[in-house]
Specification:
Largest sheet: 5 strands, antiparallel
CATH class of the largest domain: Mainly Beta
CATH architecture of the largest domain: 5 Propeller
Number of domains: 4
CATH superfamily of the largest domain: Glycosyl hydrolase domain, family 43
Distance between the termini: 66 Å
Number of helices: 11
Strand content: 35-45%
Strand order of the largest sheet: 24-27-32-29-30
Helix content: 10-25%
Length: 669
């Protein structure tokens, strides 16, 4: 069979014993015996083809296919002999394999014909009208071949990739610590995925879980992670996202042949994605040989309870926002002693090559990079180990900067927040030698803005490249603050890359420039959630105990916080206590507002926030008794540019006094 086969028919050729060439390599060569264990091969093949429609295929290929499908349906309505079934099955599979899909080409034409030449430079626009005309000609050719269709799709996408806007677009807002919404106001549900640029458009793929929906409605505790759908959003500026569709759901069929079984697994018994025990950690790669978009995702099999239930699942679509269909699974990757992968992400190199970055199963102590097969992107080549950490790491995510590859990981905290650890390639070889791991500077101050490493986005700007750390707030949904997706920029300090923990920043996706937003909260770990558990030393804050008054520890985080957040800061003790928590930050010159939510017994010697700059000191009194949370603020702080120390100071010479604080903020007016 031609290597440029359509995903809609790959599974059928396998069922009919007609899989050869690229399809056989990807899906197995078991013939009719590879079909379902509890149903007739012809019935299953016919059922899988029942939803295909003429508009998705060239007229010539459809006219050859349609009567064969009708004949198979008529045969099944009667009492055919085994030989008749086999002959009908072979004929139907052959006809299906010869279908030439044009659904994706039609979609791309509709997408790119809406571009306005006035918005782009003359040189970059030059190729798009010509490639659009050529693509329309192929679409209008009744007997167009697969090669014709794939070439038209590729050249059209390449022309769109090269479009250069005539003027720098406006900066767009990225606001963390909040739930994000799409362009019509609905919540964005996208966990454990990635952002990939096809043509001139970014596509964000991720998973929608029931727990995300529940947490959005009531962010007061953790919830579950039951799979709902794989979502797709699109944007050309990385800040305004349009919901395209659910590209796969629990009802998406699976067609796994028995040849894919390993260690007494039951993959071939799975009917659809409802039979998975876990789906997550995904990415999409475009394959120029087939013209397809291939999604790779970690999968667990709910029907298999002996522990050998993991595999990488491949789904495939004809355009970036298509209905994706089953294409393959790969339970074992050569070079990895354990089955399947852990915490994988997909990385696309500058030349378009795709790689899978992941940990091994047992202990997650090894990090690997595997190339995704160039031929059709439906298998994973042998793995190369690039890292080892005895304690184990998860949340593997790769980016490239200044000719080197970086892999960031997190602690094994069960989907909870973590500082980020990085290894860096010593050469330009993605599978070559890497450095020992080190902590990505800035992430230690608030556990990566209270996230776990998710993935990275690299913006190839007209003026500079920008690398975005896309952190996930999982924590079993989630209760580590509002929002699931927290995106922060990396900065080049001259001595290396550093993490910028910003609650509000602005990005220009055309130039690659970014800047701190006016609503940014300059305090780090202001809701005391970064530590994830009850502690007496808080990340991002320095504790000082006034031992001349008392050596008693007086610092803890307590749950819940204000507005049912996970934690708040509790200061006090049953014995006398005195001291402070402080952090030093850098701010631009301007007028600021300091605010905090407080709940206090009253009667402390003092409780206050002291802000010290090079110009003067400012004090905010907190020692006001109240049984309910209330907001205290200093609304007009004039601060010069440079370092500022923020200290929370408390003292009680009698003891048995407490004050609880939450939601601290230092923002520009």
């Amino acid at each position: 069979m031609d290597a440029m086969w359509d995903n809609a028919v790959s599974r059928r050729s396998l069922l009919a014993g007609a899989a050869t060439g690229a399809a056989a390599v990807a899906l197995g060569t078991g013939g009719a015996s590879a079909a379902t264990a509890d149903g007739d091969d012809l019935e299953r093949l016919y059922g899988s083809l029942a939803g295909e429609v003429a508009d998705d295929y060239t007229p010539v290929s459809w006219r050859a296919f349609a009567p064969v499908r009708t004949a198979a349906g008529t045969l099944l309505a009667g009492s055919p002999t085994p030989q008749q079934r086999q002959e009908a099955q072979q004929a139907l599979a052959t006809a299906a394999d010869r279908l030439v899909m044009i659904r994706g080409l039609r979609h791309l034409i509709a997408e790119y014909q809406n571009r306005n030449h006035a918005d782009y430079t003359r040189r970059s626009w030059h190729d798009l009208p010509r490639t659009l005309a050529a693509a329309r000609a192929v679409l209008g050719t009744d007997d167009a071949t697969r090669e014709d269709v794939v070439q038209a799709k590729n050249t059209l996408q390449e022309a769109a990739t090269g479009l250069t806007p005539t003027a720098a677009h406006a900066f767009g807002d990225i606001r963390n610590d909040s739930f994000w919404h799409d362009t019509v106001g609905n919540p964005i549900y996208s966990q454990g995925g990635g952002v990939f640029r096809f043509g001139d458009t970014y596509y964000w793929y991720g998973v929608r879980y029931t727990g995300a929906e529940q947490y959005y409605n009531s962010p007061t505790r953790t919830y579950d992670s039951t799979f709902v759908a794989i979502t797709c959003y699109s944007s050309r500026d990385l800040t305004s996202w349009t919901f395209e569709k659910n590209i796969a759901t629990v009802s998406t069929p699976l067609w796994v042949p028995s040849e894919k079984e390993t260690n007494d697994s039951t993959f071939s018994q799975m009917k659809n994605l409802a039979d998975t025990s876990w789906l997550g950690r995904l990415g999409v790669v475009h394959n120029p040989n087939t013209g397809k978009y291939v999604l790779l995702i970690q999968m667990g099999n709910a029907l298999d309870t002996d522990g050998n239930n993991g595999a990488v699942l491949f789904l495939q679509g004809d355009h970036p926002a298509d209905d994706f269909a089953y294409a393959n699974i790969q339970p074992q990757i050569v070079g990895v002693p354990t089955q399947s992968t852990k915490d994988q992400t997909v990385f696309i190199d500058d030349d378009g090559s795709g790689y899978l970055v992941f940990s091994g199963g047992t202990g997650r102590v090894y990090s690997y990079v595997s190339k995704i097969a160039e031929a059709d992107s439906l298998s994973i080549e042998p793995a190369v180990q690039i890292g080892y950490v005895a304690k184990g790491r998860e949340g593997n995510a790769m980016f490239k900067y200044d000719g080197h590859y970086y892999v960031a990981t997190s602690n094994l905290h069960g989907w909870n927040s973590s500082q980020a650890y990085v290894i860096k390639s010593k050469t330009s070889d993605i599978q070559g030698e890497y450095t020992a791991e080190y902590v990505l500077p800035g992430t230690e101050k608030d556990y990566s803005h209270v996230t776990q490493t998710g993935f990275f986005i690299t913006v190839k700007g007209q003026k500079q490249d920008a690398v975005i750390f896309a952190g996930d707030r999982w924590a079993d949904f989630a209760w580590n603050g509002l929002g699931y997706n927290q995106w922060m920029p990396l900065s080049d300090t001259g001595d290396g890359l550093a993490f910028e923990s910003l609650s509000h920043w602005e990005l220009n996706a055309v130039t690659g420039a970014w800047r701190t937003g006016r609503d940014n909260n300059y305090l780090l770990n202001p809701e005391f959630a970064a530590d994830r558990v009850a502690v007496t030393t808080l990340t991002g804050w320095t504790t000082r105990i006034d031992t001349d008054v008392s050596a008693s520890n007086f610092v803890a985080n307590t749950s819940p916080g204000s507005d049912s957040t996970r934690f708040a800061l509790k200061l006090g003790a049953s014995s006398p206590f005195s001291g402070s928590l402080s952090q030093e930050i850098a701010v631009p010159a301007g007028r600021y507002r300091l605010s905090a939510k407080a709940r206090a017994d009253g009667g402390l010697d003092y409780a206050r926030i002291r802000i010290t700059s090079r110009a003067k000191e400012h004090l905010l009194d907190l020692n006001q008794p109240t049984s309910e949370w209330h907001t205290l603020s200093f609304d007009s702080l004039l601060l010069p540019a440079g370092p500022v120390t923020v200290a929370i100071e408390v003292r009680s010479t009698t003891g048995s006094r407490w004050i609880t604080l939450d939601a601290l903020a230092l923002t520009r007016r």
